[in-house]
Amino acid sequence: MIPGCRNGRAKEWGPDGSLLNATRPCTPTPAYLKNLPTDATSMLNYLRRMNGRTTASNEEIFANMGELIRGYLPAQSRAALYEAVTKIPGVVASGSMTDAAGRSGIAVSLVGNIDRYDLIFEPQTYRFLGWQVVPKDESRGPVRSQVILNVTVVDRAGQVSKYPD
């Protein structure tokens, strides 16, 4: 189980992908964000400010995009998010890629100072499949990845959808 934000703190990840005993400040976010921007420029500005600062590196902006895309977004905001990522310097279409669950997809990637960050999408629907972080230097540890197998909207906590994706 991956720990989330609890009581304003979240576990820190080590460079090798393991969870550390350290924590960092965090703010829990709802799964459905209804007041997100619906145009690419406003969305890019929103991504820049997600960490609570006025500026962010391209890696931070790309990571913020990865955080947002995991949730359930209104269609116009999702479209703005996809367009905004194309405006981040260094982001490229990486072509065919396989996620950690073995599904084929297409990816957009950003090569950072230490790692390459990949967001993987289903090639026909562009549904988000997952992400991976690939160290540029193998001595820095293994590939870290996460997949999204299903997203369902229900009326209350603990309810299970009758109609899985």
In short:
This protein has a domain at 91-152 and 161-165. It is 20% helix and 28% strand. The chain is built from three helices and seven strands, in the order ββαααβββββ.
Helices, strands, pairings?
Elements: E1 9-13, E2 19-25, H1 40-49, H2 58-69, H3 75-85, E3 91-98, E4 104-111, E5 115-121, E6 128-135, E7 144-147
Antiparallel strand pairs: 1-2, 3-4, 4-5, 5-6, 6-7
Helix pairs in contact: 1-3
Cα(first) to Cα(last) distance is 22 Å
Number of helices: 3
Name the helicity range.
Answer: 10-25%
Rg of Cα set: 16 Å
- Assembly type of the chains comes to single chain
Give a count of the beta strands, DSSP E runs of length 2 or more: 7
Strand content: 25-35%
Shape summary = globular
In the predicted model, the low-confidence regions spanning at least 5 consecutive residues are none
Global structural class: alpha+beta
Mean of residue pLDDT values: 84
- SSE ordering: EEHHHEEEEE
Task: Outline the biggest β-sheet.
Answer: 5 strands, antiparallel
